[in-house]
Specification:
The protein is 36% helix and 17% strand. By secondary structure, it is α/β, with parallel strands linked by helices. Bound molecules: nicotinamide-adenine-dinucleotide.
Length: 299
Protein backbone atom coordinates (compact mmCIF):
# COMPACT_ATOMS: atom_id res chain seq x y z
CA UNK A 1 0.00 0.00 0.00
CA UNK A 2 1.30 3.48 -0.94
CA UNK A 3 1.04 6.26 1.62
CA UNK A 4 1.78 9.91 0.82
CA UNK A 5 2.66 12.08 3.83
CA UNK A 6 2.70 15.84 3.22
CA UNK A 7 4.71 17.66 5.88
CA UNK A 8 6.50 14.36 6.60
CA UNK A 9 9.80 16.12 7.37
CA UNK A 10 8.23 18.00 10.29
CA UNK A 11 7.78 17.04 13.92
CA UNK A 12 4.60 14.95 13.84
CA UNK A 13 4.98 13.84 10.20
CA UNK A 14 8.46 12.40 10.68
CA UNK A 15 7.29 10.25 13.63
CA UNK A 16 4.28 9.08 11.61
CA UNK A 17 6.57 8.17 8.69
CA UNK A 18 8.86 6.15 11.00
CA UNK A 19 5.88 4.08 12.17
CA UNK A 20 4.47 3.60 8.64
CA UNK A 21 7.89 2.44 7.40
CA UNK A 22 8.10 0.06 10.38
CA UNK A 23 4.72 -1.37 9.34
CA UNK A 24 6.18 -1.97 5.82
CA UNK A 25 4.13 0.58 3.86
CA UNK A 26 5.64 2.35 0.83
CA UNK A 27 5.93 5.93 2.01
CA UNK A 28 6.50 9.12 0.04
CA UNK A 29 7.14 12.38 1.89
CA UNK A 30 6.18 15.70 0.23
CA UNK A 31 7.59 18.71 2.10
CA UNK A 32 9.09 22.09 1.18
CA UNK A 33 11.48 21.95 4.17
CA UNK A 34 10.35 25.43 5.25
CA UNK A 35 10.24 24.07 8.80
CA UNK A 36 10.90 20.36 8.51
CA UNK A 37 14.32 18.81 8.03
CA UNK A 38 15.45 16.28 5.46
CA UNK A 39 17.60 14.57 8.12
CA UNK A 40 14.39 13.70 10.02
CA UNK A 41 12.90 11.79 7.08
CA UNK A 42 13.26 8.04 7.50
CA UNK A 43 15.80 6.81 4.89
CA UNK A 44 13.39 4.04 3.85
CA UNK A 45 10.82 6.61 2.72
CA UNK A 46 11.02 8.43 -0.62
CA UNK A 47 11.18 12.21 -0.54
CA UNK A 48 10.00 14.97 -2.89
CA UNK A 49 10.79 18.58 -2.06
CA UNK A 50 7.96 20.92 -3.04
CA UNK A 51 5.18 23.25 -2.01
CA UNK A 52 1.70 21.81 -1.36
CA UNK A 53 0.24 24.88 -3.09
CA UNK A 54 1.87 23.72 -6.35
CA UNK A 55 -0.70 21.61 -8.23
CA UNK A 56 1.76 20.63 -10.98
CA UNK A 57 3.98 19.04 -8.34
CA UNK A 58 0.96 17.18 -6.91
CA UNK A 59 0.05 15.88 -10.38
CA UNK A 60 3.58 14.69 -11.08
CA UNK A 61 4.09 12.88 -7.78
CA UNK A 62 0.59 11.35 -7.64
CA UNK A 63 0.97 10.13 -11.19
CA UNK A 64 4.27 8.42 -10.33
CA UNK A 65 3.36 7.16 -6.82
CA UNK A 66 -0.38 6.48 -7.08
CA UNK A 67 -1.21 6.97 -3.37
CA UNK A 68 -3.80 4.78 -1.61
CA UNK A 69 -3.82 7.03 1.47
CA UNK A 70 -2.79 10.68 1.85
CA UNK A 71 -1.94 12.01 5.33
CA UNK A 72 -2.08 15.78 4.81
CA UNK A 73 0.00 17.43 7.54
CA UNK A 74 1.83 20.18 5.63
CA UNK A 75 0.81 23.51 7.12
CA UNK A 76 2.28 26.67 8.56
CA UNK A 77 2.47 25.94 12.28
CA UNK A 78 3.97 27.77 15.29
CA UNK A 79 1.79 30.01 17.49
CA UNK A 80 3.76 33.25 17.10
CA UNK A 81 3.52 33.05 13.29
CA UNK A 82 -0.29 32.99 13.28
CA UNK A 83 -0.58 36.74 13.94
CA UNK A 84 2.74 37.77 12.34
CA UNK A 85 2.32 35.84 9.07
CA UNK A 86 -1.47 35.49 8.85
CA UNK A 87 -1.52 35.79 5.03
CA UNK A 88 0.97 32.92 4.57
CA UNK A 89 -0.83 30.78 7.18
CA UNK A 90 -4.14 31.07 5.32
CA UNK A 91 -2.58 30.63 1.87
CA UNK A 92 -0.65 27.43 2.69
CA UNK A 93 -3.20 25.87 5.01
CA UNK A 94 -6.26 26.48 2.83
CA UNK A 95 -4.80 26.13 -0.67
CA UNK A 96 -2.60 23.18 0.34
CA UNK A 97 -5.70 21.42 1.67
CA UNK A 98 -7.68 22.21 -1.48
CA UNK A 99 -4.95 20.47 -3.49
CA UNK A 100 -4.86 17.51 -1.09
CA UNK A 101 -8.62 17.06 -1.54
CA UNK A 102 -8.50 17.51 -5.32
CA UNK A 103 -5.73 14.93 -5.79
CA UNK A 104 -7.23 12.47 -3.31
CA UNK A 105 -10.41 12.66 -5.42
CA UNK A 106 -8.55 12.36 -8.71
CA UNK A 107 -6.40 9.37 -7.61
CA UNK A 108 -9.14 7.71 -5.57
CA UNK A 109 -7.10 7.88 -2.37
CA UNK A 110 -8.29 8.03 1.23
CA UNK A 111 -7.48 11.39 2.87
CA UNK A 112 -6.56 12.06 6.51
CA UNK A 113 -6.73 15.80 7.18
CA UNK A 114 -4.77 17.25 10.11
CA UNK A 115 -6.93 19.86 11.78
CA UNK A 116 -6.43 21.26 15.29
CA UNK A 117 -8.36 22.06 18.50
CA UNK A 118 -7.59 25.67 17.44
CA UNK A 119 -10.29 25.20 14.79
CA UNK A 120 -12.74 25.87 17.68
CA UNK A 121 -11.12 29.28 18.29
CA UNK A 122 -11.95 30.61 21.75
CA UNK A 123 -14.83 28.26 22.51
CA UNK A 124 -15.12 28.14 26.31
CA UNK A 125 -17.51 25.20 26.73
CA UNK A 126 -15.45 22.12 27.44
CA UNK A 127 -14.73 19.45 26.44
CA UNK A 128 -14.22 20.30 22.75
CA UNK A 129 -16.34 17.81 20.84
CA UNK A 130 -17.36 17.19 17.25
CA UNK A 131 -20.48 19.24 18.05
CA UNK A 132 -18.70 22.28 19.53
CA UNK A 133 -19.13 25.57 17.72
CA UNK A 134 -16.13 27.56 16.53
CA UNK A 135 -15.90 30.95 18.25
CA UNK A 136 -13.63 33.64 16.83
CA UNK A 137 -13.21 37.23 18.11
CA UNK A 138 -13.49 40.25 15.75
CA UNK A 139 -10.69 40.04 13.18
CA UNK A 140 -9.51 43.63 13.72
CA UNK A 141 -8.36 42.85 17.28
CA UNK A 142 -5.59 40.47 16.15
CA UNK A 143 -5.09 37.79 13.53
CA UNK A 144 -3.94 34.95 15.78
CA UNK A 145 -6.88 32.87 14.57
CA UNK A 146 -5.64 32.81 10.96
CA UNK A 147 -4.46 29.28 11.86
CA UNK A 148 -7.61 28.08 13.66
CA UNK A 149 -9.86 29.60 10.99
CA UNK A 150 -7.77 27.99 8.21
CA UNK A 151 -8.18 24.61 9.93
CA UNK A 152 -11.93 25.23 10.29
CA UNK A 153 -12.15 25.98 6.55
CA UNK A 154 -10.10 22.83 5.89
CA UNK A 155 -12.64 20.77 7.87
CA UNK A 156 -15.48 22.40 6.00
CA UNK A 157 -13.87 21.51 2.64
CA UNK A 158 -13.30 17.93 3.83
CA UNK A 159 -16.95 17.50 4.81
CA UNK A 160 -18.01 18.93 1.45
CA UNK A 161 -15.73 16.42 -0.31
CA UNK A 162 -17.09 13.61 1.92
CA UNK A 163 -20.62 14.60 0.87
CA UNK A 164 -19.40 14.21 -2.71
CA UNK A 165 -18.01 10.72 -2.15
CA UNK A 166 -14.41 11.17 -0.92
CA UNK A 167 -13.22 8.88 1.90
CA UNK A 168 -11.89 11.54 4.28
CA UNK A 169 -11.15 11.48 8.01
CA UNK A 170 -10.21 14.42 10.25
CA UNK A 171 -7.82 14.37 13.21
CA UNK A 172 -7.30 17.09 15.81
CA UNK A 173 -4.08 16.37 17.69
CA UNK A 174 -3.81 18.11 21.10
CA UNK A 175 -0.47 19.78 21.97
CA UNK A 176 1.76 16.91 20.98
CA UNK A 177 5.25 16.81 22.50
CA UNK A 178 8.25 14.56 22.12
CA UNK A 179 11.65 14.33 20.43
CA UNK A 180 12.19 16.64 17.38
CA UNK A 181 9.73 19.29 18.62
CA UNK A 182 10.81 22.75 17.40
CA UNK A 183 12.43 24.77 20.16
CA UNK A 184 12.96 28.22 18.62
CA UNK A 185 10.76 31.26 19.30
CA UNK A 186 8.14 29.86 16.91
CA UNK A 187 8.13 26.49 18.65
CA UNK A 188 5.50 24.87 20.81
CA UNK A 189 5.19 25.70 24.51
CA UNK A 190 6.80 22.49 25.80
CA UNK A 191 9.93 22.81 23.66
CA UNK A 192 10.25 26.55 24.37
CA UNK A 193 10.08 25.82 28.11
CA UNK A 194 12.63 23.03 27.74
CA UNK A 195 15.14 25.47 26.24
CA UNK A 196 14.52 28.93 27.71
CA UNK A 197 16.07 30.31 30.87
CA UNK A 198 14.16 31.63 32.76
CA UNK A 199 10.94 29.88 31.72
CA UNK A 200 8.35 32.53 30.77
CA UNK A 201 4.68 31.95 31.56
CA UNK A 202 2.49 34.19 29.36
CA UNK A 203 -0.43 35.75 31.24
CA UNK A 204 -1.48 34.27 34.60
CA UNK A 205 -0.59 30.72 33.54
CA UNK A 206 -4.01 29.41 34.54
CA UNK A 207 -4.95 28.55 30.95
CA UNK A 208 -5.14 24.76 30.60
CA UNK A 209 -4.11 22.40 27.82
CA UNK A 210 -4.00 18.68 27.12
CA UNK A 211 -0.43 17.56 26.34
CA UNK A 212 -0.07 14.36 24.36
CA UNK A 213 3.03 12.18 24.02
CA UNK A 214 4.02 11.76 20.37
CA UNK A 215 4.33 7.97 20.46
CA UNK A 216 0.79 7.68 21.89
CA UNK A 217 -0.64 9.82 19.13
CA UNK A 218 1.20 8.19 16.23
CA UNK A 219 -0.57 4.92 17.08
CA UNK A 220 -3.91 6.72 16.67
CA UNK A 221 -2.90 8.47 13.41
CA UNK A 222 -1.93 5.18 11.80
CA UNK A 223 -5.24 3.59 12.86
CA UNK A 224 -7.28 6.51 11.50
CA UNK A 225 -5.62 5.95 8.12
CA UNK A 226 -6.04 2.15 8.23
CA UNK A 227 -9.48 1.26 9.59
CA UNK A 228 -12.34 0.84 7.11
CA UNK A 229 -15.65 2.69 7.45
CA UNK A 230 -14.47 5.90 9.14
CA UNK A 231 -15.18 8.36 6.33
CA UNK A 232 -16.62 11.65 7.60
CA UNK A 233 -15.49 11.00 11.20
CA UNK A 234 -13.38 13.43 13.24
CA UNK A 235 -11.10 12.36 16.09
CA UNK A 236 -10.03 14.53 19.04
CA UNK A 237 -6.67 12.98 19.76
CA UNK A 238 -5.43 14.04 23.14
CA UNK A 239 -4.75 13.22 26.73
CA UNK A 240 -7.57 13.92 29.18
CA UNK A 241 -5.08 15.08 31.84
CA UNK A 242 -5.89 18.82 32.15
CA UNK A 243 -2.76 20.80 33.02
CA UNK A 244 -2.31 24.56 33.53
CA UNK A 245 0.55 26.29 31.74
CA UNK A 246 1.86 27.25 35.18
CA UNK A 247 1.89 23.60 36.28
CA UNK A 248 3.74 22.69 33.09
CA UNK A 249 6.30 25.45 33.76
CA UNK A 250 6.76 24.29 37.36
CA UNK A 251 7.24 20.65 36.29
CA UNK A 252 9.87 21.64 33.73
CA UNK A 253 11.56 24.10 36.10
CA UNK A 254 11.94 21.31 38.69
CA UNK A 255 13.47 19.00 36.09
CA UNK A 256 15.81 21.67 34.67
CA UNK A 257 16.51 23.66 37.86
CA UNK A 258 15.66 27.03 36.24
CA UNK A 259 13.32 29.81 37.40
CA UNK A 260 9.81 30.64 36.19
CA UNK A 261 8.85 34.26 35.40
CA UNK A 262 5.63 35.86 34.14
CA UNK A 263 5.44 37.62 30.73
CA UNK A 264 2.88 39.38 28.53
CA UNK A 265 -0.21 37.30 27.63
CA UNK A 266 -0.37 35.95 24.06
CA UNK A 267 -3.10 37.18 21.69
CA UNK A 268 -6.20 35.01 21.73
CA UNK A 269 -4.93 32.35 24.14
CA UNK A 270 -8.00 30.28 25.03
CA UNK A 271 -8.65 29.72 28.73
CA UNK A 272 -9.12 25.95 28.51
CA UNK A 273 -8.65 23.33 25.85
CA UNK A 274 -9.71 19.79 26.71
CA UNK A 275 -10.80 17.19 24.13
CA UNK A 276 -13.94 15.10 24.15
CA UNK A 277 -12.39 11.71 23.41
CA UNK A 278 -15.62 9.69 23.48
CA UNK A 279 -15.47 9.03 19.70
CA UNK A 280 -12.06 7.38 19.95
CA UNK A 281 -13.58 3.97 20.72
CA UNK A 282 -13.92 3.69 16.92
CA UNK A 283 -10.15 3.36 16.74
CA UNK A 284 -9.82 1.68 20.16
CA UNK A 285 -7.35 4.31 21.38
CA UNK A 286 -6.59 6.31 24.53
CA UNK A 287 -3.53 8.38 25.38
CA UNK A 288 -1.74 6.58 28.20
CA UNK A 289 1.47 8.56 28.93
CA UNK A 290 1.26 10.98 31.90
CA UNK A 291 2.84 14.39 31.27
CA UNK A 292 5.46 13.97 34.00
CA UNK A 293 6.52 10.60 32.54
CA UNK A 294 6.70 12.01 28.98
CA UNK A 295 8.78 14.99 30.12
CA UNK A 296 11.14 12.68 31.99
CA UNK A 297 11.62 10.56 28.86
CA UNK A 298 12.17 13.68 26.75
CA UNK A 299 14.82 15.08 29.04
N1 LIG B 1 2.06 19.27 16.83
C1 LIG B 1 0.88 19.49 17.35
O1 LIG B 1 0.72 19.52 18.58
C2 LIG B 1 -0.31 19.70 16.46
C3 LIG B 1 -1.55 19.99 17.06
C4 LIG B 1 -2.66 20.19 16.24
C5 LIG B 1 -2.52 20.08 14.86
N2 LIG B 1 -1.31 19.81 14.32
C6 LIG B 1 -1.22 19.73 12.86
O2 LIG B 1 -0.42 18.61 12.48
C7 LIG B 1 0.36 18.95 11.34
C8 LIG B 1 1.84 18.74 11.64
O3 LIG B 1 2.23 19.58 12.73
P1 LIG B 1 3.72 19.63 13.27
O4 LIG B 1 3.66 19.97 14.70
O5 LIG B 1 4.44 18.42 12.85
O6 LIG B 1 4.28 20.91 12.50
P2 LIG B 1 5.64 21.10 11.71
O7 LIG B 1 5.78 22.56 11.44
O8 LIG B 1 6.75 20.41 12.43
O9 LIG B 1 5.38 20.32 10.35
C9 LIG B 1 4.79 20.90 9.23
C10 LIG B 1 5.59 20.48 8.01
O10 LIG B 1 4.97 21.06 6.86
C11 LIG B 1 5.99 21.57 6.02
N3 LIG B 1 5.41 22.65 5.21
C12 LIG B 1 5.03 23.89 5.62
N4 LIG B 1 4.57 24.60 4.59
C13 LIG B 1 4.64 23.78 3.48
C14 LIG B 1 4.31 23.94 2.12
N5 LIG B 1 3.80 25.10 1.65
N6 LIG B 1 4.51 22.89 1.28
C15 LIG B 1 5.03 21.72 1.74
N7 LIG B 1 5.38 21.52 3.02
C16 LIG B 1 5.17 22.54 3.89
C17 LIG B 1 7.09 22.05 6.95
O11 LIG B 1 8.36 22.13 6.33
C18 LIG B 1 7.04 20.99 8.05
O12 LIG B 1 7.92 19.93 7.75
C19 LIG B 1 0.00 20.37 10.97
O13 LIG B 1 -1.02 20.36 10.00
C20 LIG B 1 -0.54 20.95 12.26
O14 LIG B 1 -1.42 22.00 12.02
C21 LIG B 1 -0.19 19.61 15.08
Amino acid sequence: MNILVTGGAGFLGSHLVDELVLQCYNVLVFDDLSRGEKSQVNPKADFVEGDVRDSEKWEKLCNAFNPDVIHHLAAVNGTKRFHKEADLVVDVNVNGTRNAIEFAQKYNARLVFYSSPESFGEQEKMPLSNHSESVFPPAHLHQRHSYGASKHVGELLCHFAHRNGLDVRIVRPCNVYGPRLHGNENGQVVSIMLQSNPIIVHGDGLQTRSFTWVHDIVEALVKVGQIEGLSGHSFNLGSTEEVTILQLAQMISRLRLVNVEYGEPNFGDSARRIPDVSGNHLIDWVATTKLEDGLNQLL
